Amino acid sequence: MSEPARTQRNPGTLPTPPRRSLGTPLILLALAALVVASFATLQLELGAFFAPEAVTTTLEFLAGFAPPETATPFLLKTLNAAIETLSMSALGTLLAVVAGLVLALPAAGRWGAAPRAAVRLVLNVLRSIPELVWAALLLVAAGLGPFAGTLALAAHTSGVLGRLFADALENAEPLPEASLRTNGAPALAAFFYATLPQTLPQMLSYTLYRWENNIRAAAVLGVVGAGGLGQMLKYHLSLFQMQSAATVVIAMLLLVALVDAISFALRRALTR
Fold first, then answer.
1. Do 183 and 170 form a contact (C-beta atoms < 8 A)?
2. 55-60-64-65 Cα dihedral, nearest 10 degrees
3. Which of 11, 150, 166, 221 would you label with 100, given CA atoms 20 to 30 Å apart?
4. Which residues lie closer than 8 Å to 217 by C-beta, 6 or more apart?
5. Rg of the chain over all Cα atoms, to the nearest angstrom
6. Is the pTM of the predicted complex or chain greater than 0.85?
7. Does pLDDT of 48 surpass 70?
8. Once rounded to an integer, what is the mean pLDDT over residues 6-14?
9. Which pLDDT value is given to residue 5?
10. DSSP letters of 201-218?
11. What single DSSP character describes residue 97?
């Protein structure tokens, strides 16, 4: 009897279930062992953290931040620092977008395998160095102030966005660009009219997300002298002016919330 006839006579026969792989359970066990080993090697003193003396000291420290400083001259000074922080993040992100696009083309393999490997190595170096380290290095060349912080944000974010943009270009559908090239369109025109429109919404989403991160990073970079709210926070904390520091912290929270709301609205507009 043929196989199709046997299948027709036994319509309720279930197919043989696939054999389960042991890879996933082994990975989960390895992760669980890593977590256990981390707790064992860090020597966390949770009892001392929740001790009555520690709780009392923490509450007394936090009480020193109240009430925040609300004098008009200080509020204007904080507003100027917040604008400086916002400008650092926006300009640093903009420079990173330009550099990321330039580096993404060879990193996506459009110029060959050797340039792809070399540029991806450069991108790995740029993003593996934290913003604080970049700022510490650039402060020597650019001096104290927001210029060094802006360059630090641009350097680190260029590595991140360059890698993300390159992956987006590699994952784009190649047929539209190939069709334009076949019909005689130049390579640059085919890229701008076929490949870039496919990846542009994804690139804009990556850019907005990194701008959100750069707001937080710009606030921290001031700790090493890169200007903005971070520099104000370090100054007042070093002098134990807790009420003034509380105002700066509130300004940081409001600035981050504002940028998050703007970024969310822009992403919603792009996806409609």
1. no
2. 20
3. 221
4. 89, 131, 153, 156
5. 27
6. no
7. yes
8. 53
9. 47
10. HHHHHHHHHHHHHHHHHH
11. H
Q: What is the mean pLDDT of residues 46-63?
A: 80
Count of alpha carbons within 13 angstroms of residue 9, beta-carbon side: 6
Q: What are the helix (H) ranges across the chain?
A: 3-9, 23-42, 46-49, 52-63, 72-107, 113-128, 131-142, 146-170, 175-182, 187-190, 196-221, 228-238, 242-271
What pLDDT score was predicted for residue 16? 66
User: How many Cβ atoms are within 10 Å of 105's Cβ, its own excluded?
Assistant: 18
At 255, list the tokens.
């600035």
pLDDT digits (tens, 9 = 90+) for 86-117: 888 899 999 999 999 999 989 888 787 888 88
Q: Which residues contact 189 (CB under 8 A, 6 or more apart)?
A: 180
The pair of structure tokens assigned to 13 is: 């026969």
Which amino acid belongs to residue 61? F
Structure tokens at 158: 């260029």
Cβ atoms of residues 146 and 227 within 8 Å: yes
Query: What is the DSSP track for 255-270?
Result: HHHHHHHHHHHHHHHH
**Would you say how long the chain is, in residues?**
272
Q: Which residue has the tokens 């709301």?
A: 261
Where do we find the tokens 């100027």? Answer: 80
With tokens 């001031």, the residue in question is 222
The position carrying tokens 């966390």 is 44
Q: Tokens at residue 132, please?
A: 């604080």
Give the Cα separation of 6 and 24 in Å (integer). 37
- Lowest-pLDDT range of 45-54, 122-131, 194-203: 45-54
Q: Give the residue carrying structure tokens 């790995």.
A: 124
Tokens 């707001």 — which residue? 215
